[in-house]
Write a structure and sequence with these properties.
Oligomer: single chain
Keywords: Signal, Transport
Strand content: 15-25%
Structural class: alpha/beta
Helix content: 40-55%
InterPro entries: Bact_solute-bind_prot3, SBP_3_CS, Solute-binding_3/MltF_N
Protein name: Amino acid-binding periplasmic protein
Order of helices and strands: HHEEEHEHEHEEEHEHEHEEHHHHHH
GO biological process, one term: amino acid transport
Shape: globular
Family: Belongs to the bacterial solute-binding protein 3 family.
Number of helices: 14
């Protein structure tokens, strides 16, 4: 009798769980439905900073965030070209997302508590770890930021860097003069022209700005870091399925690197791997795609389009590129970094 009661209870629990899971997958996703009906993913990106998003000599957008957009389009459509890039300034990016002008924001955007709780938006999985820094002329004789008393500092409107800079100089009781711009290229031009003594923003973006300057060797990025700047995609609140798609797509790109799945070997690994995790990731078994209303090959298609996280990083800002930014905290956790894919099972 006891065994029968336990069996009945277990069967009831499983049925309830299956029913709840089925109900979850049947919840409408207004964003996914709109993207599919339109046939294009509208993706918000930077107005222009090397490494993350900038047009090449042919006018084709290139960069880390650009590839994240392309990979997401491939996960949805099996076509990385089905994406429309919408360049946005720091001060307009969140408004554009909230109004529906874009479906997702992949734009060097830091997760903060107030952004996550007051804008009607949600920060998704962190995909890049950075920190606020300062760039000065190499011959300026500046070794540390505390030495820049009275300096004019270029800053970008609508960024966390405005507050970080003000907080630091106030904490050490050192005066400075902010010069605020709408776009990164405007601040970089002012720096080169001598309107500012320094440019304060996230170190990765400083590396991108320096790479785009006429004489990069004339500029140095000071070694101090003054904040934590975890970047992640942003989506609108209230569409849980779309949040899940962006979250687990980002995770899949990281998971692919952890498992050694690349653009070149994804097809072979899908055909021959006996690793259950790899088989799930690459859609040999369909449950991951089904859980987020995508094709079973969603992650496989994304990896085939843009590669795993390491491939995207090295192609867009790695040490063999003009940006030449060591991975540092953006290494996998197994290599001493902070990247850690949540279990995909």
């Amino acid at each position: 009798m006891l065994r029968r009661s336990v069996a009945v209870a277990l069967a009831a629990f499983c049925a309830a769980f299956a029913g709840a899971a089925s109900a979850q997958t049947n919840i409408p996703s207004p964003t996914l439905d709109a993207v599919r009906a339109r046939g294009t993913l509208n993706c918000g990106i930077h107005t222009g900073v090397a490494g993350f998003a900038s047009p090449d000599s042919r006018g084709v957008w290139q960069g880390f965030d650009v590839d994240m957009c392309r990979g997401l389009a491939a996960a949805i459509f099996n076509d990385p070209a089905k994406v429309r890039f919408i360049p946005l300034s720091s001060s307009t990016r969140f408004t554009a997302l909230g109004s529906g002008e874009i479906d997702v924001l992949f734009r060097t955007s830091t997760q903060t508590m107030l952004r996550d709780t007051t804008l009607g938006l949600r920060h998704v999985t962190t995909y890049f770890y950075d920190g606020h820094g300062f760039m000065v002329r190499a011959n300026a004789g500046v070794q540390r930021v505390r030495d820049m008393g009275g300096a004019t500092i270029c800053l970008i409107q609508g960024t966390t860097n405005e507050q970080v800079t003000a907080d630091y100089f106030r904490s050490v009781n050192v005066p400075f003069q902010p010069v605020v711009f709408e776009r990164t290229d405007q601040a970089a031009a002012a720096l080169v022209a001598g309107r500012c003594d320094s440019f304060g923003t996230d170190a990765s973006q400083l590396a991108g700005v320096r790479a785009s300057m006429p004489n990069p060797s004339e500029w140095t990025i000071l070694s101090e870091r003054f904040s934590k700047e975890p970047y992640g995609a942003y989506v609108r609140r209230g569409d849980d399925n779309w949040y899940d798609i962006v979250r687990w797509y980002t995770t899949a790109i990281i998971e692919a690197e952890e498992q050694g799945v690349t653009r070149a070997n994804a097809e072979q690994m899908r055909a021959s791997s006996v690793n259950p995790n790899t088989r799930r990731l690459l859609g040999v078994t369909p449950e991951l795609g089904q859980s987020i209303k995508l094709d079973p090959l969603w992650a496989y298609n994304a990896i085939r389009a843009v590669g795993n996280y390491g491939e995207v990083y090295e192609r867009t800002m790695g040490e063999a590129t003009p940006v030449s930014l060591p991975r540092g905290p953006n290494n996998l956790w197994t290599n001493g970094g902070l990247l850690y894919a949540l279990p995909m099972r």
